[in-house]
Give the backbone structure.
Amino acid sequence: MKKIPCIAALLLGLAFIVFGLNFWLHFLPAKGAPAPGSFMALLVASGYFPIIKALEVIGGVMLILPRTRVLGLFLVGAILFNIAAVHQFFFGGLKDPTVIALIVLALIVAWSKRCALCCVNTCGCSSGCGCGTSGGCGCSSTDKPASTGGCCGGK
């Protein structure tokens, strides 16, 4: 069971690396160019889309590396939320199996890193220090009661 989140992070990271690099290298077959004036055409024409694709590649690499997995999850999570929102509101619902699979993988990784995500929220580190073990920020859930400031003991 401990390998499932690692496999999910690897698959999610590889997916974002592949789809991000495909923007520049064009190694996957294209579904067709977006219609002029459409939302996607505006993103490409504005120069905003290359930035998103670069962040996808960076986030994918961060997901693959265990030390930066939580930060990569933040980056890729924001992009994945926007992908899901575009599909939901512009393309008639969240029906694409690729997007659904990526969301499920991201949720698996997020659930496995829930203690580290708590620490990022409370004390700014991503070491998972709120699960009773001493972490990189020097705080532990046994230092102070959790009610005084979250999982990191109020630091």
About this structure: The helical segments are 3-25, 39-46, 48-64, 69-90, 97-112, 114-122. The longest helix spans residues 3-25.
